[in-house]
Amino acid sequence: MEVLQAGVEEEVRRLVARELHDRVAQTLTGMLVDVENFKSEQVSWQDVVQQLDGIQSSTRQVLASIRQLLHDLRGEEALDGSFVDAVKALLVRFEAKTGIRPEIEITEGWPKALTPQASLNLYRIIEEALSNIRMHSGAKSVRIVLGPHAENELGIVVEDDGRGVDTDPSRPVGMGTIGMRERAMFLGGHIRVESENGHGTLVRAMFPKDLLVSHDTVIVAKRKSS
Ligand SMILES: Nc1ncnc2c1ncn2[C@@H]1O[C@H](COP(=O)(O)OP(=O)(O)O)[C@@H](O)[C@H]1O
Ligand SMILES: [Mg+2]
Question: 196 in ligand 1 pocket by Cβ < 6 Å?
C-alpha cells in the first residue's frame, strides 16, 4: 500500500507540476511580457481596450486551467461506481496478482449507497488490509464481510488464513496501520486487529451507520459470491 500510495502521490505531484508549469506559469509569463511591452508603447485608448481584452482572455484561460486542475485532483477523492462493485473489482485484481483466493459476503442490512467519503475511505482500508495480506501473511485465502455489526453500526471484516500478526498493543505499528486508523477515525469509527499466531489475521472496522450512509438508502438482500 505504501508503495502504491507513494506511486499515486508521485503521479499527482507530477500532474500538478506539469499543469502549473504548462498552463498557469506559461500563460502568466506571457501576460507579463505583453504588459511590459505595452507600457513602452505610444498607444491610443482603443489600443488600451484591446490590450485589456487580451489580459481578460488570458486571465480566463488561467482560471479555467486551475479549475480543471482542481477537478482532476478531486477526481481522486471519489470511487467510480458503487462501493461494492469497486471492492469486487479490487478482489479480482488482487487474485490475479497474488493467487490468493478472495471471497466476499455482503450481508443483509448493508446499505446500497454510501457517502463518497465513506466509499473512498472504506475502499482504502480494504486495499491496505489486502496489501498487508499480500506482503506479510502467506495466506491462501481471504474473506471479506460487509454487513451490520451491531445496532446502528456497520462493520467491515477482512480475514486471512495466514501466519497471523502480533497484536500486542505496545508493539510499534507501521504507516499502513496508522493510515487505516486515521481513515476509520475520519468516518467516526475504529479498527481492531485480532489474531492468534498461526491462525490468520482479522481486521475489523466498525462505524456508526449514520455517518456512512447517503440518503435514499435501499437495503440490499443477502448475497454471497466469491
Ligand atoms: N495480514 C497480516 N498477516 C501477517 N502480518 C501482518 C498482516 N498485516 C500486518 N501484518 C504485520 O504488521 C506490520 C504492520 O503493518 P503495516 O502497519 O501495514 O505496516 P507495513 O505494511 O508497512 O509493514 C507488518 O509489517 C506485518 O509484520
Ligand atoms: Mg502495510
Answer: no
Dump pLDDT digits (tens) for 141-172: 999 999 998 889 999 999 999 999 988 888 88
Is there an atom of ligand 1 within 6 Å of 136 CB? Answer: yes
- Cα distances from 90 to residues 13, 23, 24, 161, 198, in angstroms, run 24, 35, 36, 19, 26
Q: How far is the CA of 136 from the centre of ligand 2 (A)?
A: 8
189 Cβ closer than 6 Å to some ligand 1 atom:
no
**Residue 76: pLDDT band by 50, 70, 90 thresholds?**
low
Confidence of residue 91 (pLDDT cuts 50, 70, 90): very high
Q: Dihedrals φ, ψ of 201, to 5°? A: -130, 140
Contact between residue 127 and residue 179 where contact means Cβ atoms under 8 Å apart: no
Q: Tell me 44's DSSP state.
A: -
Helices 175-186/116-132 angle, 10° precision: 160
